[in-house]
Amino acid sequence: MSTNNTLTAKDFSSDQDVRWCPGCGDYSILKQMQTVLPELGVARENLVFISGIGCSSRFPYYMNSYGMHSIHGRAPSIASGLKAANPNLSVWVVTGDGDGLSIGGNQLIHLLRRNFDINVLLFNNEIYGLTKGQYSPTSQLGIHTKSSPLGSIDHPFNPLALALGAEATFVARSMDRDPIHMRDILKKAHEHKGTSFVEIYQNCNVFNDGAFEKFTDKKQKASTTLNLQAGEPLLFDNGEMGVRLNGFQPELVKLEEGYSINELWIHDPTDTTKAHLLSRMFGDDVPRPFGVLYEGKRFTYEKAMQDQVDASIKAKGLGDLDELIKGKNSWVVE
Amino acid sequence: MSTNNTLTAKDFSSDQDVRWCPGCGDYSILKQMQTVLPELGVARENLVFISGIGCSSRFPYYMNSYGMHSIHGRAPSIASGLKAANPNLSVWVVTGDGDGLSIGGNQLIHLLRRNFDINVLLFNNEIYGLTKGQYSPTSQLGIHTKSSPLGSIDHPFNPLALALGAEATFVARSMDRDPIHMRDILKKAHEHKGTSFVEIYQNCNVFNDGAFEKFTDKKQKASTTLNLQAGEPLLFDNGEMGVRLNGFQPELVKLEEGYSINELWIHDPTDTTKAHLLSRMFGDDVPRPFGVLYEGKRFTYEKAMQDQVDASIKAKGLGDLDELIKGKNSWVVE
Amino acid sequence: MAATTELQKVTIHFAGDSGDGIQLAGSQFTNTTALQGNNLSTFPDFPAEIRAPTGTVAGVSGFQIHFGSVEINTPGAEPDVLVAMNAAAFVKNIKNLRIGGTLIIDESGFDKRNLRLAKLDENKNPLDDLDPNDYQVHRIEITKLNREAVDGLTLSNKEKDQSRNLFVLGLVYWLYHREMETTLTFLQQKFRSNETILEANTRALKAGFHFGETIEAAKRYTVSKADLAPGTYRNIVGNEALGLGLIAAGKQSGLDLFFAGYPITPASDILHFLSRHKNFGVKTFQAEDEIAAITAAIGASFGGSLAITATSGPGMALKGEALGLAVMLETPMVIVNVQRGGPSTGLPTKTEQADLFQALYGRNGEAPIPVIAAMSPSDCFDAAIEACKIAVERMTPVILLSDGFLANGAAPWKFPKSASLPTITVHKATGDNYQPYARNENLTRQWAIPGEAGKEHRVGGLEKEDITGNVSYSASNHEKMVKIRAAKVENISDMYAPLELIQGDTTGKVLVVGWGSTYGASKVAVRWAREEGLSVSQLHLRHLFPFDKELGDYLSNFENIVVPELNNGQLVKILKQEFEGNIHGLNKIQGLPFKAKEIFEEIRKHA
Amino acid sequence: MAATTELQKVTIHFAGDSGDGIQLAGSQFTNTTALQGNNLSTFPDFPAEIRAPTGTVAGVSGFQIHFGSVEINTPGAEPDVLVAMNAAAFVKNIKNLRIGGTLIIDESGFDKRNLRLAKLDENKNPLDDLDPNDYQVHRIEITKLNREAVDGLTLSNKEKDQSRNLFVLGLVYWLYHREMETTLTFLQQKFRSNETILEANTRALKAGFHFGETIEAAKRYTVSKADLAPGTYRNIVGNEALGLGLIAAGKQSGLDLFFAGYPITPASDILHFLSRHKNFGVKTFQAEDEIAAITAAIGASFGGSLAITATSGPGMALKGEALGLAVMLETPMVIVNVQRGGPSTGLPTKTEQADLFQALYGRNGEAPIPVIAAMSPSDCFDAAIEACKIAVERMTPVILLSDGFLANGAAPWKFPKSASLPTITVHKATGDNYQPYARNENLTRQWAIPGEAGKEHRVGGLEKEDITGNVSYSASNHEKMVKIRAAKVENISDMYAPLELIQGDTTGKVLVVGWGSTYGASKVAVRWAREEGLSVSQLHLRHLFPFDKELGDYLSNFENIVVPELNNGQLVKILKQEFEGNIHGLNKIQGLPFKAKEIFEEIRKHA
Ligand SMILES: Cc1ncc(C[n+]2csc(CCOP(=O)(O)OP(=O)(O)O)c2C)c(N)n1
Ligand SMILES: Cc1ncc(C[n+]2csc(CCOP(=O)(O)OP(=O)(O)O)c2C)c(N)n1
Ligand code: SF4
Ligand code: SF4
Ligand SMILES: [Mg+2]
Ligand SMILES: [Mg+2]
Hints:
A: alpha/beta, 3-stranded antiparallel β-sheet, C: Rossmann fold, Rossmann fold, 7-stranded mixed β-sheet, 21 helices, binds iron/sulfur cluster
């Protein structure tokens, strides 16, 4: 009963009631995932979603595939073990800003470094949703939450900069409110061989409503977001504005003021330094980049692991258990 | 019995026998620490060393100060709690590449993000010393160790790049074999207000001998290392070679071939992008930078924490326990 | 006009969608009722999801309150009143409603969609099937009435409907002769920045209250003030009492309070509470995980603070290694575990007592740590102070167990004056030749805090030499230190107040031995049994390790020992390790507190 | 020429600085002795530091071997021969040397510096004070002689001295009529890339051997082949046997072996061993920490591998939360804890059995996990296979306890043919309508592995509905599932071979009940007691949870139960939870194994 290629989004939807708050950004991500899957050509039985704990981490229950809703912060390791055990599976980690960057920080950075071919979707709502609204490692400085009634004093992580620092080979950003963009990024993440780290801005309308409104609001979006496309110049504000590099300094320029499109920064996702600069376009004075900031090539961990097994078998022959038990120095008592 | 300013290195040496292997790089670091301390003007009673587990982590036992040899990987959190409790202490974390970057990765990156005024010394010997020689998250790819008899398949961390990605405000590199350099960096780390992250290349002559010989060997050193000094051009090979920036690309140039010193990259440790580039000068084809790669300014966590307490007392008055117990809605039964 | 009947006690269960504001209505009813001088006990019970799917049984949020003019020890078993805002709430709870009880229904929650979501036949309203002799049923178009009440305000229907909970609260207030004052003040506070919402809620509450007049309710009820001991009272939930106790302990010890925690249900509110009271010199640290939280607390303790961390079961599991370090360091700190349903993530919003074993044994090596448990919401205050006192005075980590039922349950509290609180004496290092592991007569070492000149020393997790604290691999020293650490903890029972029976004689047929939140249900069950003339007594353990010295004597004077626990039998096993006798476990593992009846029936079996 | 005396058994203790190559000499002597057909048991004992300070008592590394022609169950108590390479080694061990025993000394290790480092009077050589009637003393200038032996090689003095261990080994070989062959072959392998070093070591060994001729040793000894059961034997240390067992279990189950570990003494060698045998299809994963290791194993298990993780106490403490998840998932895996001295970092290179409580209870909620323990180095093989068999056939995590003594201790092993190993049957999901939590008669669920079409399903740590495995917050379902998980684990005792006494009658005065590595010492102690005519029997538990069904019957037939443990009393407490009787703990907490005498004396007290 192997699944064929004529699956639809619905085929990837499980029979479980979806239990997010009405209006939660998670719905859209789920929908885009289910929508894009038929195009990826992954058989349902080879698809696995692993999550930790958090609102976002309920994701696997809603996917008609294999899945595990595990413990807080450890999905990257579980996924690593799974991928090591069976490199043929398409393994997706779904995590949150708390799950992935707070308790699970160590597991995440080591996954990125090792570069298993796993896709990590980090639903960043800049809050702990499931535990009802404490600030997270991505929350804005000064935010007032249940655990920071006088304002948070925690300088937040910049998730993409952290991922780059941790040797990630694929780093991208998308948002819940832009289905087309998200589907595109999900597809690219899937295609990348190695760990794909995708941060998705996700609105928690109950505990941190509007955290990303600036980027998702139809009116503001054009001027606050930068849609990255490989080989294309960095344009925003409906093409009226562009980004150019003045030495190291990204500079926002108005095209009508005489700047030509040829002077603009052309997006090259294979350039690590530029990826770094893009990840640091993080303030209020610059548009926020969305898309694939970086994609590099490195062997995948599961392959190197399998290669050592294969090479070892080739070199020594498939292990003979009796020989091994006997060891090198045995003697007979008669 | 407060300690005065006329202390010498010996006053910082405890009565415990030092238990590292003869020839271990740890000795030198200990010695430089003890040597530099009298200059820092920290009273012995205000000095605390916190370590995890590993050869390097035995450090506190040898310091005549307060100290804790804690559990594996958690020194950053212990130090954070300590510093929060008493911001007046001079708190030093001593950790290893295993302790700090493997099991303790999460604690480390969160410390960096929070920016407690703590000095972290990571003794990087690219191996697990205490457990007798397994590869670590900084070991070279392909290294043959007890746990990687066929060669390690783990792409290593670049500790300084990771620290920068984790929002560190002070990032430096030194080496066990250069006492003067190390003392200078220790002093600068101490002076920096915020978390100072110092990676120290340390030779483990038993399990990973010569890992850094290239950089420490008198003969090779000049051409393999780049001594960073704020405001100075990037020169190496006894001033014969320099580094210049070709766009984003660091380029090694021979000064005698007509390149002038004025064209060289002038080290500016406050420039985040340049710090990034320096951290990524990590291959065999470029000299390895030593010194302070980056120093930025950000409020310290312990101060923000104390400020909230103070502000809260100012706003609401010093808490009255009886009022608090009583709450807002009480009633009397007679 | 409806006649008023005087009742001794009443149980009301509010139930609706998790978005319906049930918890708010419940806690408002609780506060009002407390202020009206009743004794009470509450039990909030809500889904693990933030907003579980609307209209489904899984999405039902419940709040039960038991109040009266008599002693109240449990949130009640069979409610006298069930408020059901929709079909799912009805389905889930109707079986509990006492025959003869009152059912208050929002008709609009029984439309086809709601029936379907509640997995009922959408063409058959179950209300139509109710036998009118069974219950007093009030089928009310609450949604419609409420929309009328707030008519004219510029609110969407959705926003209007969000005040329905106040409407129904008003109605129940009317039915039970409650005053609206407390809630009106609360609303003014809460919605001070949004006048329209404030107005809607105020109108809803009043409309509900006045609607009481119009319904065909034959009766109103009143519940007189409870005959409480004279004193000043307030209403309190367990987590808040616990937080208060920690602040009080800080004051009593003269130490700064440092609290490190990573959010987890049902412990997070302790962090929230403390973070609101920084003007008590409290520092709160939201750590990146539970390991960081406990190790930050260890650091703060090393630095001279009264250091606390709080979590629930899964978080506690992560702290095991650091607990071992705290044992080695012999440094004071309190680790709070507000238990919830396990194993693993389990039933995160439900209550359970299944982490006792973990508290006693969940770490490597011989690592004895005192364990104490709170037994009621207000007792969380005393238990927190005692935990801190043991920790500080005996230089040891202490584990304090609470649970979800205590954490969120409310009860009136005759709170003490701070002047009457226990003193906590800090064992500061004195003299010149400081030896970190020298000990006094009860084996406590002295605390030398960084910043004190001349007492510089190093501590750590390796075995340490007696007295000097230097690292030691000596065989005999290790055995000695293991025994010293054990003896030191055993000695702590010296500090305990004498163990006393809660009820009954010192000898008899059955002794009920409980711990933690089973206190109230046991108390009622034993009272019932004694009223029936059975030979039953009640003992309740605050101290799980080490046990009270008198415990063995008490046990030996009863033919049967019954140990009710919300787990699969943990204290019962521990008791058997040390004591002989017929020790029987009574176990409930449903994520719910005991009903007094369940314990009562078990007592009967053995009496 | 010296006369040769035939001995039944001998204990030799090699001691020197940790840099002296004592462990190498010891293990070479062991291998040679094993190949010469003796029975044997060894005990390496070394400092926690990589190179503890030279010359100090703390820096002494020791290796004891007990070998003979008779049955050998322990590494011996009082050595017959002490080899002491320096004063510290002498000071540390002389008190153990049997009166009448042989002392072999390197004189150059007793210079002023060495005496000072050993905290002795530097002007007084303690050797001068020895009563010549007490011991046979050989004071040899080993360093000097050895330098002469390797004279001419281009080596520094330091490098030359590094072969002293071979010199002394040669001498002991001569004394006990051992062949040099095995060691010569070993040296050729080890130093194949450095001829000079090879030459030095070879010369040193031979020089030592020949030096035997010249010393004034009155006697040489010989120890005949042991009367071992016929079969093929090899020498093995516990960690290697354990690794072999895991590989064997992989083969027997037809599953790929996946091992995830984070290095920790004394468990790391399991990782090292397996990483050398990838040609068995073994994948080894050095994780970033213990949490990652166990969760990677959980992932691999979910993916259909035979998943293993191994650690020691502190690492085990970190795995508690994930163990709970494994319980919920009901997925097969084995968690090995090679115990060491605790609590906290404790005594990392010493042995202890103090993690039993942690294995049984170290996690939140009701989370029963089977626990089994290995009892001898070679038994680590069988225990590993049994752990895997239980895990796979009953779909559960299993905890396997070993300890530092077993891990590094060696013994001859009559190894089995692979054809005779137990089969391991995988419980793969079959049929069409896969229900993840449907169960067979022994309550085991079926394993559906990603990649199988039509069996897609989701699992997780929240409580799950019986049969379907969907998330369920139902009260009654939770209780049901807790009981099912408990019953499922209880059922595992069905799989056990019948519990049998090791020695003695089924009824009597004293029953010695041990577990783990106390096996050998108990065996000798009970044998001695029985030889004295005492009414004593021996039972040894492989299964700590659930217990063997017959255990209660055995216990009830003895007046006294003696439970020797290398902890402060853990199994003894667990036994008391379930069984009546006079159960006495015998506890040693010194980081050292029991001596048979210690157990023997306790038996005497109760017989
Ligand atoms: C060990 C452990 N600690 C704490 C928790 C409580 N907890 C559950 S989810 C969560 C944070 C969720 O935040 P995030 O990952 O951002 O997910 P969101 O709910 O925002 O999608 C926490 C702290 C837990 N389940 N387990
Ligand atoms: C929880 C835990 N896991 C594992 C260990 C074992 N361990 C001790 S030190 C160490 C690694 C040491 O490496 P590193 O930090 O690089 O220090 P080094 O010895 O190289 O200085 C390990 C794995 C431990 N002590 N505790
Ligand atoms: S709490 Fe926030 S993140 Fe969680 S389901 Fe609700 S809206 Fe979504
Ligand atoms: S093992 Fe290596 S790091 Fe450790 S003390 Fe020896 S030389 Fe130093
Ligand atoms: Mg979040
Ligand atoms: Mg290292």
